[in-house]
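User: Okay, second chain of the day. Same drill as before: sequence in, structure tokens out.
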Amino acid sequence: MRDDVADLLLAADAARLSDHPAEAVPYLNQVVRAHGSDPRASLASFTLGRVLLDELGRPVEAATAFENARKGPLAEDALAREVEAWSRGGDTTRARNLAIEYETAYPQGRRSRAVAKFGGLE
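Assistant: Same drill. Structure tokens below.
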């Protein structure tokens, strides 16, 4: 496999979609580490966060991936998912602080209800 962003993302998708999410992690990590300036790196970080949180049950690692994804076009969703990840990882203080940050940045945010729930703002 070449160290090309498109090839790495394709390999990650193939692993995820064939029910091998753990095999997607190295490909996504490589995009983030080796190609951080590529506009698709934030997508790779977001996807990595989803895999780690939703499929592998690794919320603290997922939170870090979502934090990295906040630099791109998925910033609002990444921040919301980061709140969820910290909440699931047991760091309720951090989840709450990030939920407040979300509400400030996105007062009419499409994920406000989930953020309030996971951030303990309800």
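The chain is about 70% helix and 0% strand.

User: Thanks, on to the next one.
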